[in-house]
Amino acid sequence: MVIDSLKSVGLTEFQVELGQVDFFRGLVEEAGMDRETEDRLRELIESKNHFGVAELIGEQNISDRLKAAFLKLPELFGSTEILGEARALTDNQRALAAIDRLENVYGILEIYGLSSYVTFDLGMLSKYQYYTGIIFKGYTYGTGDYIVNGGRYDKLLVQFGKDAPAVASPSAWTIF
Predict the structure, then answer these.
(1) How far apart are the C-alpha atoms of 143 and 140, rounded to whole Å?
(2) In what order do the strands lie in the sheet with 14-20?
(3) pLDDT band, residue 176 (cuts 50/70/90)
(4) Band of the pLDDT at 82, cuts 50, 70, 90?
(5) Where are the beta strands (DSSP E) in 60-159?
């Protein structure tokens, strides 16, 4: 829907980055991090602050394998190859299910001839806690920032009296 929307407004050169918050959440859950540490780590990873991540992770009492996974997160962006790299970092079922989901979505996009518009960023972690699955940002030349973003949120509507999954709609996107 995002790709079709961007094409319909006349854009031909753009990329949509896909992330999956459950990859990060699975690792955080396994690490047993408190909310404050998780929030700090999320911000450091999102801003690609490798040194900050290294410092914070160095303070944690977690396995070397888990430390390596967190340290790699700011670098896990690019083509489908990064999904394989991410898979090799963990045996956490929640994190692996997140990778499976991204691979499935990519397969569908290939069928529709849209995969050339897609890259992945497992270090894309929204500051908004309501996202529960795939998140995305769209970029084009000359803007300096994303032109569209959103994602899956399954529990946000409960706060308003309706327990239903949802995804950001085109009317909710910011397009410059």
Answers:
(1) 6
(2) 77-78, 118-121, 14-20, 134-140, 148-153, 166-167
(3) very low
(4) very high
(5) 77-78, 118-121, 134-140, 148-153
- What the block records as the tokens of 41 is 């780590």
| Residue keyed to tokens 């397969």 | 107
Domains of the chain: 2-25+78-172 (3.30.930.10)
- 71 phi-psi bin (left φ>0, alpha ψ -120 to 50, beta other): alpha
Residue 3 corresponds to which amino acid? Answer: I
Secondary structure (3-state) at 12: coil
The region that residue 113 occupies, defined by phi over 0 for left and psi between -120 and 50 for alpha, beta otherwise, is left
Q: Which residue has the tokens 């490798």?
A: 50
Specify the residue for token string 């790699």. Answer: 72
Question: Is pLDDT above 80 for 159?
Answer: no
| 43 Cβ contact list (under 8 Å, min separation 6) | 127
* DSSP H or E run through 67: helix 64-72
Q: What local confidence, expressed as pLDDT, does residue 172 receive?
A: 43
* Two structure tokens written together for 123: 């270090």
For residue range 131-148, what is the model confidence (pLDDT) as tens digits?
567 888 888 988 878 888
| pTM, entire model | 0.83
Q: How many CB atoms lie within 10 A of CB 128?
A: 11
d(CA 69, CA 27): 8
